[in-house]
Design brief:
Distance between the termini: 54 Å
Low-confidence stretches: none
Largest sheet: none
Radius of gyration: 18 Å
Order of helices and strands: HHHHH
Oligomer: single chain
Structural class: mainly alpha
Number of helices: 5
Mean pLDDT: 84
Shape: flat
């Protein structure tokens, strides 16, 4: 990949993440839209959190101090861990939206 292609890919991922956030927010007004947004947010955050398991660079390497590995995270690991809060919010929105959709179906 050349530099321009990488920049486009990063921009496209940013647009995707913003779109998922907007769909999740719109769940306030439309529970079905909230279900879609929250579901996509859950899939996205689980994918990101998988880096904690699959990428050795997220854990502090052996630098001779005796403090290394789990549970010590590098900067990259701390950046990924924020997705736990996003996941928790998405689960709350998903459950709220699902409850509202079920209530609409009962009427």
């Amino acid at each position: 990949c050349d530099r321009r292609q990488r920049q486009m890919c990063i921009r496209d991922r940013g647009i995707l993440i913003m779109g998922i956030g907007i769909l999740t927010f719109l769940g306030i007004f439309s529970p079905k839209t909230g279900l879609v947004g929250a579901g996509l947010a859950i899939v996205m955050t689980l994918g990101t959190l998988s880096f904690l398991v699959t990428t050795p660079e997220v854990w502090v390497p052996d630098l001779g101090s005796g403090e290394q590995g789990f549970p010590l995270l590098t900067g990259a690991g701390r950046l990924v861990i924020k997705d736990i809060a996003i996941l928790a919010g998405a689960v709350v929105v998903l459950s709220d939206s699902a409850g509202r959709v079920l209530n609409q179906l009962k009427k």
